[in-house]
Amino acid sequence: MIRTTNLRKIYRMGNVEVKALDGVDLTIGKGEFVGIMGPSGSGKSTLLHLLGLLDLQTTGDIWLDSIDVDRLTDYEKTMFRLYKLGYVFQDYALVPELTVAENVCLPAMLRSDRKEEEYRADTVKILKQIGLSDRSSHLPRELSGGEQQRVAIARAIVNKPDILFADEPCANLDTENSSVVLDLFDEINHELKQTIIMVSHEDWHSKYFHRIIRLRDGKIVEDSG
Ligand SMILES: Nc1ncnc2c1ncn2[C@@H]1O[C@H](COP(=O)(O)OP(=O)(O)O)[C@@H](O)[C@H]1O
Ligand SMILES: [Mg+2]
Q: What backbone phi and psi angles, to 5 degrees, belong to 218?
C-alpha cells in the first residue's frame, strides 16, 4: 500500500547541498508496524514527512494505495491526509484551549461525512481504550506528558486512518510512559490492523516493531522485513 522508488530529498542552503534522502526504495504492506530507525540526521523525519504528504521529494516516486501522489493537486492531498492518514508528533501538538474530548474529535469535525453523534461515540470509546475517560473534560495542560501523548494518539486514530505516522512520539517521555505509548501502538496495530510507521532512535523500542528499516546518511542500510 506504500511504495517508493529512488526517493531523494535534497535541501539546498546557499551553496550547500544536504542529501537528506539518497535513493530510498521501499514497500510497506497494510497492517505492518514498522520502525524507522537510525542516528540523528539520517533522514528519518524527512522520509516520514514525504510518506505522510507533509513535504515534497526532490526526485523519485511515492505511491499510496496505488496512487502516484505526485498526480494529486494540493486540495486532493489535503483530502488524502484528512481521510486516510493520521499523525502523532513528539510535542503532542494538542490545542491548548480545547478539552481532551474536543481535541480527539477535531479531525472528525473537519470531515463532511462524519456525523456528530457517531464521532462523539467513537471519542468516548477511544478515551476508554486509552484509559482517560475520567479526563475527557480536562484541558491538555492538566495532564502529564504521557497522558497528553495518549490523547494525541486518540486524535490520530479517531478517523480510522489507513496509515498512522508517528515521529519520535516518545522523545519527551520517560521510560515508563514510553512503554505505555508503545503498548498502545501495539494494541492499535493488533486490534485494528492499523498500519503504523514510527520513527525512533531508541534501541530498546526495536522490540515493539515487527519490521525495522534502518537509515544512515539518507540510505536504507538494513531492512528486516
Ligand atoms: N528544512 C531543512 N533544511 C535544511 N536541511 C534540513 C532540513 N530538514 C532536515 N535537514 C537535514 O537533512 C538531514 C536529515 O534530517 P532529518 O530527516 O531531520 O533526520 P532525522 O530525523 O533522522 O534526525 C540532516 O542533515 C538535516 O540537517
Ligand atoms: Mg527526526
A: 80, 10
Q: What spacing in Å lies between the alpha carbon of 104 and ligand 2's midpoint?
A: 25
The single-letter DSSP state of residue 216 is: E
- Tell me the angle at which helices 116-129 and 145-157 cross, rounded to the nearest 10 degrees: 140
- All three cell numbers of 209, joined, read 516493531
Question: How does strand 195-199 pair with strand 163-167?
Answer: parallel
**Shortest-distance ligand to the CA of residue 90:** 2
Mutation test residue for ligand 1: of 10, 11, 201, 216, the one with most atoms within 8 Å of CB: 11
Residue pair 156/78 in contact (Cβ under 8 Å)? The answer is no
Structurally, how many domains does the chain consist of? 1
Q: Give me the domain span that covers residue 92.
A: 2-223
Q: Say if pTM beats, i.e. exceeds, 0.90.
A: yes
Give the tens place of pLDDT for each residue, 92-118.
Answer: 999 999 999 999 999 999 999 999 999
Which residue has the least CA distance to atom 18 on ligand 1?
Answer: 45
The phi and psi torsions of 21 (rounded to 5 degrees) equal -130, 130
CA of 43 to the centre of ligand 1 (A): 6
pLDDT at 54 (0 to 100): 96
**What CATH code is carried by the domain that includes residue 58?**
3.40.50.300
* CB contact at 8 A, 127 and 150: no
* Positions of the chain with pLDDT under 50: none
